[in-house]
Amino acid sequence: MHIQWYPGHMAKAKRLLKEQIKAVDIVIEIRDARIPISSTNQDLIELIGDKPRIVVLNKSDLADLNRLNAWEKILRQDAFAVVKADSLQRKGIKTVIAKCQEASKEMQKKRTQKGLLPRAVRAMVIGIPNVGKSSFINAMVKRGSAKTGNKPGVTRGNQWVRILKDIELLDTPGILWPRFENEQTGEYLAFTGAISEKIFDVEEASLQLICMLRDEYPGTLSSFYGLENEDDKNYILMNDIGIKRCFLDKKGEVQTERTALRLLHDFQEGKLGTYTLDKPEEVGN
Q1: Dihedral sign of CA atoms 150, 129, 273, 234 in order
Q2: pLDDT grade for 124, boundaries at 50, 70 and 90
């Protein structure tokens, strides 16, 4: 499945981010815990340079815990800290705050040496669309001040939010990179809702999702949808799911697009179980 998506506002947001990176002390990078690698924008990592970076593996409640723990150890090698989080339940938020304060000690030390008073640490929050940046900031603020939504691309402009007297956050729009070199990356972004359903073939994506689940998590589809035989071809399984859900038109035929969307949404909402699609054992391959 070939997917490319790079709206014009993302190029503008990247330019703004480049201008503002000098004004921040640390960077909080939000990733989707289900795709810790595929949700990484290397363009943004290069812009950050050597600033301390805290990687937050958000939506950890939807992730495969064994794979997630493995990724946490791997990612620690390149980041100041790695924190598993579930922003909707505010899990991991206290740890992120503590890591922000820890990361700012060097900055505060240098200010003291120059005879300057301590100031709030300025942290920039970055990430690709729909990894939960706004929900994360709301969890940090403890109130719904940041604009949120369950669709990619909700945040269009940069905005500062004070969360404690010693921490300020700069929210930024979700930014993808111009071209997906790896076709699998595009599929994973589609499965998890990081890119708009308007720009890819949802039926083709759902067939790919069925294929992946059958190979890596056998029994998932039959268990959740009550299918009798998971060994059938992918399009037959899609048809069976539509029948089980009673997604039929007036002629009694399965509404395939409606069925495909339901399958994608069931996966994104965690109804099919917990999964981490990027495989730690493939690092370096």
Answers
A1: positive
A2: very high
pTM for the whole thing?
Answer: 0.87
β 81-84/53-58 pair status: parallel
For the chain, what's the residue count? Answer: 285
pLDDT digits (tens, 9 = 90+) for 219-276: 999 999 999 888 889 999 999 999 999 999 999 999 999 999 999 999 999 999 999 9
Residue 153 pLDDT > 50: no
* Angstrom distances, CA of residue 201 to CA of 83, 102, 113, 190, 257: 34, 45, 58, 10, 9
According to DSSP, the residues that pair with 229 across neighbouring strands are: none
Residue 185 structure tokens:
């990356």
pLDDT in tens, 177-233: 767 778 899 999 999 998 888 888 999 999 999 999 999 899 999 999 999 888 889
Closest CA to 71 of 284, 275, 283: 283
Determine how many CB atoms are found less than 10 A away from the CB of residue 117: 7
Q: Which two tokens stand for residue 114?
A: 């120059």
Per-residue burial over 118-153, b = 16 or more CB atoms within 10 Å of its CB, e = otherwise? eeebbbbbbbbbbbbbbbbbbbbbeeebbebeeebb
Say which residues have a Cβ less than 8 Å from residue 118's Cβ, sequence separation at least 6. 108, 111, 112, 166
Helices (H), the chain: 8-20, 42-48, 65-75, 93-103, 105-113, 133-141, 183-192, 202-216, 220-225, 234-244, 256-268
Nearest one of 234, 179, 228, 237 to 208, comparing CA atoms: 234
